[in-house]
Amino acid sequence: MGISSPNFPGGTAGATGVFSDLEIDSPTLVVDEVNDRVGIGTASPAETLDVVGIGSFAGADASQSQGNVRVGIDASGNPGGELMYHTDDHIGLRCADSGAVTLAVKPSGNVGIGTTAPAQVLDVIGIGSFAMAEASLSQGNVQVGVDSGGDPGGELMYHTDDYVGLRCADSGAVSLAVKPSGKVGVGLTSPKTLLTVEGAVTLKEQASADTDTAAYGQLWVKTATPNQLYFTTDAGDDIQLTSGTAIAGAATSNNDMDLILHMQVFS
After folding, report:
1. Is 7 a member of any domain?
2. pTM of the predicted protein model
3. Could you tell me if residue 41 is inside a domain?
4. Domain end point (choices 151, 172, 197)
5. 192 with 206, same domain?
6. Residue 120 and residue 175: Cα distance in Å, rounded?
7. Residue 249 lies inside a defined structural domain of this protein
8. Does residue 20 form part of some domain?
9. DSSP output for 126-171
10. Quick check: 187 and 174 in contact, CB under 8 A?
11. Rounded Cα distance, 125 and 120, in Å
12. DSSP state, residue 221
């Protein structure tokens, strides 16, 4: 359809003119009748509404610090979603029928999901789900930081209903794994006991044991030259396990024997 205009300037008085397109101070406003498109700021609109420039959407002339852009219509005929600007406070996204702002961006650059008052660069109120793909929801990764080569620095990963792990992303090896049972593995992903360590454990020497706690024993290294291995009971009894290069109280060097410690603490 065209634009019908009686008494159009330049036409016959009383006649009706039909025009295929409408241009008002082109490219201020252009209607492309052939493709059913409207251009604002462009004479060649490429979409149903094509705006080249900045648009301002305010709730009312008296309240220009608030504005909404509504997108889509739900099954009931109500607006489907909104991009909103709220009183010099935040830009938000929400499903228009819910009223709750799902995502908010503050002037500071902080982003809130589930909150309009984010205290950090990204502040999430609720539970986040990170999956590799819809077809593989049993695995997911959260990557943290970027190394000098531009690769992810580290990862918190969930592996196929098996464990949650931490690793340096470039190494591929999981440094720490937590199983659904609560068992923790350091250097392996299949811990056998509450804490299983694959490899040597290094203990920093100290002058004395920590404060005694009922039902808990302590294994620690006492400051000496060379330092000494101790076990302290929950009653505060310090038991020296090594002396110099031998077992405490023994004359044989540990170069000639294996030291096996079996320690059980019962509550």
Report:
1. no
2. 0.57
3. no
4. 197
5. no
6. 28
7. yes
8. no
9. S-----S-GGGTT-EEEEEEE-TTSSEEEEEEEETTTEEEEEETTT
10. no
11. 12
12. E
> Mind listing the pLDDT tens digit for each residue in 227-263?
999 999 999 999 999 999 999 986 544 444 444 444 4
* Matching residue, tokens 């079996």: 262
The residue among 210, 260, 248 whose CA lies nearest residue 232 is: 210
Cα separation, 127 vs 155, in Å, equals: 18
- φ, ψ for residue 106, nearest 5 deg: -90, 160
Where does a domain end: 105, 124, 143?
124
Residue 9 structure tokens: 């300037």
Q: Answer yes or no: are the C-beta atoms of 109 and 118 closer than 8 Å.
A: no
Tokens of 252: 């044989």
> What is the rounded distance in angstroms from the CA atom of residue 206 to the CA atom of residue 200?
19
pLDDT in tens, 76-87: 777 788 888 877
Provide the domain limits for residue 191.
134-197
Beta bridge partners of 69: 83
Termini Cα distance of the chain: 89
β-bridge mates for residue 230, sequence order: 220, 240
Q: What secondary structure, in 3-state letters, does 105-129 show?
A: ECCCCCEEECCCCCCCCEEECCCCC
Q: Give the list of residues 6+ apart from residue 6 with CB closer than 8 angstroms, or none.
A: 14, 15, 16
Do 207 and 266 fall within a single domain?
yes
Cα(252)–Cα(229) distance, rounded to whole angstroms? 16
